[in-house]
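Colleagues,

For the teaching module next term, I've prepared a clean inverse folding example: a structure given as tokens, and then the sequence designed for it. I'd like students to try predicting residues themselves before seeing the answer, so please don't circulate the second half yet.
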């Protein structure tokens, strides 16, 4: 599993505000972050990205300085297909492991599935996990 970084820490390292990160996510420049339990507080969730998101943030920041247009940056900036595929595979594995675990609960399942859908459209693999989810509900 790749190293993770919180949304706030990524923003700080990239020299931007967390609200800028949320704005970029909303406008499709960045994928939605994964939501993980906030162990430090013992409640709630934290938004985390793979550390590789820092490269994307740096490129977006530079491109926006040059073009001043989110539409232009969005058209010219995309997550490399290899990075997207790796991110999808990692999230699918984590979701599958979670569904099979004793820690399973519907709310977290829905949240993890939404995270995966934020990276890519629903795939046959996601449909397979949904079937596992429904089988678990029957038990």
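(Answer key — instructors only)
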């Amino acid at each position: 599993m790749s190293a993770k970084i919180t949304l706030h820490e990524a923003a700080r390292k990239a020299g931007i505000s967390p609200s800028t990160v949320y704005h970029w996510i909303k406008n499709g420049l960045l994928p939605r972050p994964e939501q993980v339990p906030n162990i430090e507080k013992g409640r709630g969730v934290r938004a985390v990205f793979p550390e590789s998101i820092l490269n994307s943030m740096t490129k977006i920041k530079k491109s926006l300085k040059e073009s001043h247009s989110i539409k232009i940056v969005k058209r010219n900036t995309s997550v490399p297909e290899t990075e997207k595929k790796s991110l999808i595979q990692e999230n699918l594995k984590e979701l599958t492991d979670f569904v099979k675990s004793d820690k399973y609960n519907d709310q977290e399942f829905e949240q993890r599935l939404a995270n995966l859908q934020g990276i890519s459209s629903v795939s046959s693999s996601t449909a397979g996990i949904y079937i596992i989810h429904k089988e678990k509900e029957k038990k």
